[in-house]
Amino acid sequence: MTDGMSSSAGTAADLVLIGCVKTKQSRAMPAADLFASPLFASRRRHAERSGVPWYILSAKFGLLAPADAIGPYDVYLADQPREYRRAWGHFVAAQLAVSYGDVRGRLIEIHAGAAYVDPLREPLTALGARLETPVCHLTMGEQLSWYSNAQPAEQSANAERLPALDELTEVAAALADPGRPRSPAQFLAGDRRMLSQPGLYCWWVDYAGAHDLTTCLGQLVAPGLIYAGQAGATRWPSGRRSANTLWTRIAGMHLGGRAEFSTLRRTLAAALSGALDLEHKDAAPLDAWIRQHLRVTAVPFEDPDRLAQVEATVLDALDPPLNLRGRPQTPLRLRLEELRRTWRPFDEPGDS
Predict the structure, then answer these.
(1) N or C: which end of the chain has fewer CB within 10 A?
(2) Distance (Å, rounded) from C-alpha 300 to C-alpha 174?
């Protein structure tokens, strides 16, 4: 099906367009290599396997050929005014007419979010193209799952797979699945043995909690996944093993009333200190807020030696807004960092 409806894998498109992502390498390089996340890697792999011409949709540059050399930038199409997005769509259509040629009657498969697809509908349709958007309506986790399962029509069923990417896709999809999170009470009542091992976790906030954070921070925090991390990763370069598990990290640190050992609790306390009237080591108001407004997903991962690398790649894909360390700067993160610098009733936290 076309024009915004989902399609089955392997549609014989004439042209593939894939959206860029926020996470980028730190230096100039070909566009196909600049964008760094499991989602972009999956989109690129799908485009390359299609066997047809493909281009990258850039919020700053419009249409990019895979070999076009560009540097990192911080322009996000969803953040731009409507007139910018509208002009961007017409610009991309004009670039495509020059780079590809006449698109009349051509089927263009677009792998990007709505912020990229919507501005392209009118100008590309006006040029006579037909649009297909297999993943536009899917969540991040669903997109990763779609690419994991998709097989172009001409690809052999026995074609070589990429185990590492499939593994990362599975982990990211599990963390981003909105049907998996459990309330703190449900988590604490669950099977502790299953969580007494290393793994990754993420925290989700409900609408009321997101409203509280937005009001306190003066920056929009949307309901959904807001923070992710790992427990039990080997500490490199020393190779020292960690005794942490998903259970000790979530139950003992995040839900245990010890802000000095939890980066998440410290961030929430700094953000909500005014609204919750937090004073020194009185953790009860913060505990009550967490139990009322947050939910958690925990995904075991058996290999602690690779866990830190997996966490870094998953964070690039999901980009939770409350993660600060090593993440791209945003107005929200700058505000959180400012609050954390000025709100210091506890000792410095650990690596939670």
Answers:
(1) N
(2) 10
Residues 148 and 56 in one domain: yes
Question: Which pLDDT score is estimated for 1?
Answer: 37
- Identify the band that residue 279 occupies on the pLDDT scale cut at 50, 70 and 90: low
- Residue 284 shares a structural domain with residue 150: no
Q: For 222-277, write each residue's pLDDT tens digit.
A: 999 999 999 999 886 667 888 899 999 999 889 976 545 588 998 998 899 878 77
- Is the predicted pLDDT of residue 164 greater than 60, yes or no? no
Q: Which domain holds residue 199?
A: 178-342
Q: What local confidence, expressed as pLDDT, does residue 165 receive?
A: 57
Count of the separate structural domains present in the chain: 2
CA–CA separation, 229 vs 330, rounded Å? 19
Residue 157 confidence class, pLDDT cut points 50, 70, 90: very low
